Amino acid sequence: MSALRARDNPFRVERILSIRYAPLESSWDALLSRLHALDCRAAICGPQGSGKTTLLEDLAVRLHASGRRTRWLQLRRELRPSARTLMQQFLQAASPDEILLVDGAEQLGPF
Description:
By secondary structure, the chain is α+β, with helices and mostly antiparallel strands. It is built from four helices and two strands. The longest helix has 14 residues, at 52-65. The chain is globular, with a radius of gyration of 17 Å.
């Protein structure tokens, strides 16, 4: 049995990460229209590993392409004690014309 070289592995990280999120029952145009109808206030919910961050990354690209400014905050469990402070600083630095993208909002707790 020959050894498989890492670059020949069909499940190598680059291949897995190249598979992006695609709306199944909608289109990007419909998703963006709905987001704008909600005045850009929405939540992406789902279990860990379901593609929420990937969807948010792809959404940010499309928002930029349409001329919208975004500001990104990524919260992680290891940052939880300072999540409230980070969020306050994030909100204070934001301008009214930016769309705020928060990944890991569950780390904020009741805040």
